[in-house]
Give the backbone structure.
Amino acid sequence: MRHRTVADLMTPEAVVVQRGTPFKEIARLLDEYDITAVPVLDENDQPVGVVSEADLLRRQIAKLGATTAEAIMTSPAVVARPGWSVVEAAKTMEKKRVKRLPVVDDSGRLIGVISRSDLVQLFLRRDRAIQEEVLEEVLTRTLGVAPSAVTVQVSDGHVTLTGSLERKSLVPIAVRLCESVDGVVEVVDRLSYLRDDTTAHGSAAPE
């Protein structure tokens, strides 16, 4: 299974400002592009900070007058890497309490921006695509389960697994792998098994 990464979901052409960009210009860019923050770049196109709506409001409330991005920005910038999983990006946003992350390459140069709204796109994935990945990648290719053994139903990202697996130990593995499929919101486990291989000697499933 190939999970989508930050590189797959990020916006490559980011709106940015320089250290000397004035307060009013930053406010205009946020409004014009309907975004909540902009990276501040140095002369090497490396993010040195981020100016958010909250930063602008704090400056205005403090009545410190118009100033530049360098004076307003939150620094250092919290950044993401293109190879990160979407889970890693989401956890970083949650931990640092930010809505957008500049994405940088190995040299630290900005190559894009990923936002919470970009991550939400995963959960807009079509049910049919999720169903096909669960059947073909998880059950058939990864676990070696016959397509006829398990029925997969998907509705608004909620996956229901019905049928029988050869061994009991495969049930939690199947559920866990299905939960990791992009776009899956929840997995409902209605699986049974033919043999209990979790006991010392193994036994047939109860009738």
Summary: The two ends are 35 Å apart (CA to CA). The longest strand covers residues 186-196. The chain has a mean pLDDT of 90.
